[in-house]
Task: structure prediction
Amino acid sequence: MKESLKLFLKKSFKDVTLSEILSKTGLSKGAFYYYFKSKEKLFQEIIETYFTYMVMYKFENYSRNSLKEFYTDHLKDLGRAVSQFTYDKAKIGDNNALSANYFYPVFDALRILPEFRVSMKAARDKEVNYWTCAISRARESGEIKSNMSDEQIARIFIYTGNSIGLQLIMEDGPMSSLSNNYKEFWDNFYKSLKG
Result:
């Protein structure tokens, strides 16, 4: 899987051939089909192993005491995902900065694996729901004040996080700075919500 992942990071799913996979891994065609029914099944296994955890946060374990504690718990969870990502990169022999190449397979998966698209949508819906509930609790307790709706505030937290990550990718920045960049922005946004 590691050798195949390297191929999928360099080329699209469509452009990686079974012959290349066999050549790179040293497997015979029979051995390949013993483990995987098709190139698509191999690709699906790679996506589930190396990419799905990036959006599977444990919101149900986050603090319900305050919005600040909720987003602090999210930053810790994000740190867990970053650590796993860094470990996976080292495991496949890639110690470079975060790069857009790591998202090409995700875009292919969204296009060719319907169940992956469904699981990603469910993960995003869950994320919006948990953030919205945390903001609603913060509003009810008087922790924050804003004319924006709870969902609008939730989406600002989510979308700014996404854009900070994307900016870091475009700059080939170090993964280690991701949580600090989120925290700085979210702390300032949180202060503005306190009114």
